[in-house]
Amino acid sequence: VSDKADFGFHATMLYGRDAQVVQTYGWDSNLGTNRDGINSPFDRHNYLTFPELYAKMYLPIGLGVSAYVGNFFSPVGTEIGTAERPTPNFFYTRTYAFVSSPIKHTGALVAANLMRSEQSGYLSGELGLVRGWSNTQDNNNSNSIIGAVRWRSPNLATWVDYEFITGNEQNDMTRVSTPQMPVSR
Fold first, then answer.
1. pLDDT tens digit string along 81-95?
2. Is the distance from CB of 148 to CB of 164 less than 8 angstroms?
3. Whole-angstrom Cα distance, residue 173 to residue 59?
4. Is the CA virtual torsion 99, 104, 109, 113 positive or negative?
């Protein structure tokens, strides 16, 4: 645990066909190269996205507190973060994982180390306020709360995570012209 405060930012840019699945509706979808135009989106082969663009701050309060503000990969869901490229997970294509669980969020998240013990292990917690899943223009005009409690054994070989997201995630069907995450239409 560092005893010095730290501040920085993180930016990831992705260009190509794989960038389509990690678009942020209302942000990446508004870039000129990604907008629907003369050609159908089915004819498009390359997309430009910024899967992560956030500021991060660490404060030496208690056992350490971190805060993220911006667009970041989801700390809850099928996997922590997403792998646009092959990984040791042989199901790396994740055909439905990007639709059935959060990919990323726009908002703020605070994470804190709650316990550190050589006998009991490590305990941390996260809590955040976000704008739904993979969008900045939530068409039902409501925020969501995400959070997690994570325990790790002293040797880090065993872990238990309880993660949640709650809020109005349902598309408002009266506003069909502005769906939330496009793949969740």
1. 445 555 555 455 555
2. yes
3. 42
4. positive
